[in-house]
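In this supplementary section we document a worked example of the pipeline. Step one takes a protein sequence of length 456 as its only input; no multiple sequence alignment statistics are reported here. Step two produces a three-dimensional model, which step three serialises into structure tokens for compact storage. The input and output of this example are shown verbatim.
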Amino acid sequence: MTNQAQQITLIGAGPVGSLCALYLAQRGYHVTIYEKRPDMRTCQISAGRSINLALANRGIFPLEQVGLMDKVNELLIPMKGRMIHDIDGHTNFQAYGQRPHEVIYSISRRDLNMLLMNEAEATGKVTIKFNQAIEQIDFNTKTLSVTCQQSAQTQTLEYQILIGADGSGSQVRALMHQAIGNSAKHQNRLEPLDHSYKELTIPAGANDSYQIEKQALHIWPRGEYMLIALPNVDGSFTVTLFLPNQGENSFAELTNEAAVKAFFNAQFSDALALIPDLTEAFFANPTGHLATVRSSPWHFNNNCLLIGDAAHGIVPFHGQGMNCGFEDACVLNELLAQYQDDWLQVLPAFDSTRKPNGDAIADLALDNYIEMRKSVQEKHYLQKKALAFELEKRHPERFIPRYSMVMFHRLPYSQAKSRGEIQNAIMTELLQKVEDINQVDMALADKLIVEQLSKI
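The serialised model returned by step three reads:
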């Protein structure tokens, strides 16, 4: 086999795997995808596992590149900002940005995944095989054992290039690091968050109307936990409760219907009135767990690569898991073009290019959980947000709010994180001795921004 492989074996037919396969097919590769789950297009996925996806610029750009945005647009609902619900039922809208295009979009994971699978198969170069579980991989002989979960038959298959896009619990990653062995230079760590989630639904109102503001991501922040709701095209909202696993106000306490109703009545009374099947759904739907994947390397033996959550699973609080995975597929395509499809150069280049950014967005996502469940109601946070918008108006090319850098721009996550830290320090200094942002010394602000941000 030359360095220009013709056949790609891809594990995982989720949104990232399906988009990656579409990119590869458009480059002329033949791709076979092995997916452990059944085909969601022919069977109902289990309730309570759908968490709506938030599509932003980083995810839109790859979809535009493969020619899908016209079809994706039909599935989108714009969210212009956060609608904050306080404990008394009052609401406060906080815009994400200050330009018309600075919105994010709610989209059904299922609908987007089905579209991507259909489009990949429509190329005639992608075959998806469902109910196929990866058992073993021999990275030296380039073979893998796959078991059909319906027939229980196992077969051994050859591959040229193997791409693991099989999620945060990746079997490809596990087998890859098993083959690598123990080494201080290698890392395969799952960092559980001591919070989990439960999915619920606010149904559509009369004539498929929206019972709360349609173009917003709704948040009920309560300090150590929160409820969120994202709109669906049918008028409903997908609601997710994020809660500690143990202690006061935790999943450990919500063991019966009375406890669940009492908790919601005390903490989310306005939401409770909109969820008629609260207790039924609460106990019927699974409790989802949250974790961060820290792994290194993302490639092995010149023939295997990890992308998406398989390489860098993150918690969902910045809405960037899918966007980051789509960006992975985009960068992989760019590197294939740059190195003329020489995978011996592409694999390490992808690793070195994307790893720092995967680490950065993992940290930013954890930070954003604190912001969403707590900071959004604090005076100091609101002052900084208002000041950041004002400084962006004065220095649009130098000062960009951190949230905007992540969601509305495509500069590397690692740069967004480092620039965000500098900008936060600048704002902290400017707000140190004032009660209102109108008292901020803008001459000093201009000086600090030019000095500290112009060379980055």
